[in-house]
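Re: the request from the purification team.
They wanted to know what the chain is likely to look like in 3D before they choose a buffer screen. I agreed to run a prediction and write the result into the notebook, where they can find it.
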Amino acid sequence: MTPGAVCVSERETLADAAQKMADLDVGSLPICGDDNRLKGMITDRDIVVKAIAKGRNPAEVPAGELAEGKPVTIGADDDATEILRTMGQHQVRRLPVIDGHDLVGMVALADVARALPDRPVGDLMDAISKG
């Protein structure tokens, strides 16, 4: 897990989110509300496909507009097997880590890959790639 995840506020614009992604050299960010609770995730692809490709100005669209449904998360005490299961089930490579209702970090497939034997990670890559 990478502790201290940086959020984009639901009120910040997509341009703000893109700048944070560029500064952090990441492709996704959690979207947090004013109550500091996780509202969703936003990816660089979301910004392109759901805003720019539709002619929307990223400097005017709030990030919270792209937060859809309940975010997929894992608990701070979940083990690697649970992380792999959740990533495979939801076909994601990164998950926000929650302790109670607080965002405490992010876990990426690379984090899990470093901690486990090759076979479970290969199975997950197959599951994610089927989508």
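For the purification team: The mean pLDDT is 86.
Please add any questions underneath this entry.
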